[in-house]
Amino acid sequence: MFQSRLSVLRPAGLWSPLPPVARAVAGRRLSDIRTAGADLRPLAGVRVLDLTRVLAGPFATMILGDLGAEVIKVERPGSGDDTRAWGPPFVAAESAYFLSVNRNKKSICVDLKQPRGANIIQELAGVCDVLVENYLPGKLEQMGLGYDQLSRGNPHLVYCSITGYGQTGPRCQSPGYDSIVSAVSGMMHITGPENGEPVRPGVAMTDLATGLYAHGAIMAALLQRERTGRGAHIDCNLLSSQVSCLSHIAANYLNAGQEARRWGTAHESIVPYQGFRTKDGHVVVGAGNDKQFIKVCQILDLMELTQEPQYKTNKLRVQNRKQLLRILSHRFLQETTVDWLRRFEGSGVPVGPINSMQDVFSDPQVKHNGLILQMEHPTAGRITVPGPAVRFSSFIHDDPAPPPVTGQHTTQVLRDLLSYSDDIITALREAKAVA
Q1: Helices marked H in 113-158 — which ranges?
Q2: Would the pLDDT of 343 be above 60?
Q3: What span, in angstroms and rounded, lies between the C-alpha atoms of 158 and 147?
Q4: Which residues contact 368 (CB under 8 A, 6 or more apart)?
């Protein structure tokens, strides 16, 4: 297979069904990877071939990169990842969208539609532990890059497919878009103001949930490979991810036949548990039990409410929510958000302001948690993105690699991982198989 595709570029006698370096690396297991020192990232020594674009896949592979994996991002020659053009805003020529989910990656530009380009991906899959892709089912198989095809050369490969609806079924050939699946999955049906129109969540939660599921599934497959010595094909899709995240809303329907509805910031099963307008903003208060409700009434100087029989239990408060919330809403309007936060401080009642982005990234806890991550980008200069959400005792997320420019590492990867000579790389460039 390799001989027929690139023999014109490489000296005879160097080809085998799996390159020597691939045979050496493909059989490795995580326990074989030894790195000295206490600052050991969990995925140090794991190599990921990233054939994804936009958000769900890149979000998953960015998390793997944060954990120490070497992530090789494959992009289209010329335009690269779709999100490179998603702006404004741009930082220099780079879109803020792309910069947000592509740190700690190397970018190579390969034309998969060319046999020579597809051959490069085949070879890279032979020296990688994980491959992540988000093509329509069957598309990569047509290029010789499906799981069954690549696992024959590298049986240890963990191959994660991210699609809109799954590998099989009546919708499997439909493209996956966050907003569409958010609607189809019921997420949009339950999001928005009470008695108002459905609302798209402010960020692409369906994509992000899928990315998190994919990241977790890949980690589990790597652990399974430790026991079995074999990789696996992971079917991860937006529809299944979002439906599974419907949680108790789905259970309410499946077990009690209770159709969901929109509640705005409120909770259908707990009262009070929602946002309230203040004199200058909004504050969210959650009274999850009867003791907390009494405390809320005490702070609001409305202790008489605790004596009303219709508010004695949460079940009764849910049944009589309208009149109770009318009283509480009127009281919250009488003072500022800061005043209410001061009153609730130390009370044990969950409370917080509805923050703007400026408020979020000025918050002392956000800063303390390291959620403001700065990097030096080769063309955009100093950039700032949200930092990793999880912390480990064994290492710190310091010195992250900035998101790459398009094709920044093409030559490096071909030379270092596949031992391509400069002549071969030049020929591939001239043939426009790589860029």
Answers
A1: 115-126, 139-142, 147-153
A2: yes
A3: 9
A4: none
Predicted local confidence at residue 7, as pLDDT: 33
**pLDDT digits over 362-393, tens only?**
999 999 999 999 999 999 999 999 999 999 98
Is there a contact between 243 and 185 (Cβ–Cβ < 8 Å)? yes
Find out whether 333 and 278 touch, Cβ atoms under 8 Å.
yes
Candidate list 50, 81, 129, 207, residue with the active-site label: 207
Classify residue 135 by its DSSP letter: P
Pairing of strands 372-377, 381-386: antiparallel
Q: Which of 265, 341, 266, 267 is nearest to 299 (CA)?
A: 341
Which pair of structure tokens corresponds to residue 94? Answer: 């780079």
**Are 403 and 61 contacting, i.e. CB atoms less than 8 angstroms apart?**
no
Known catalytic membership, residue 207: yes
What DSSP line would sit under 159-217, residue for residue?
Answer: EEEEESS-SSSTTTTS---HHHHHHHTTTGGG-SSTTS-----SS-HHHHHHHHHHHHH
User: Which residues are CB-contacts of 148 (< 8 A; sequence separation ≥ 6)?
Assistant: 141
- 377, containing H or E segment: strand 372-377
Cα distance between residue 70 and residue 128, in whole Å:
9
* Pairing status of strand 232-237 against strand 158-163: parallel
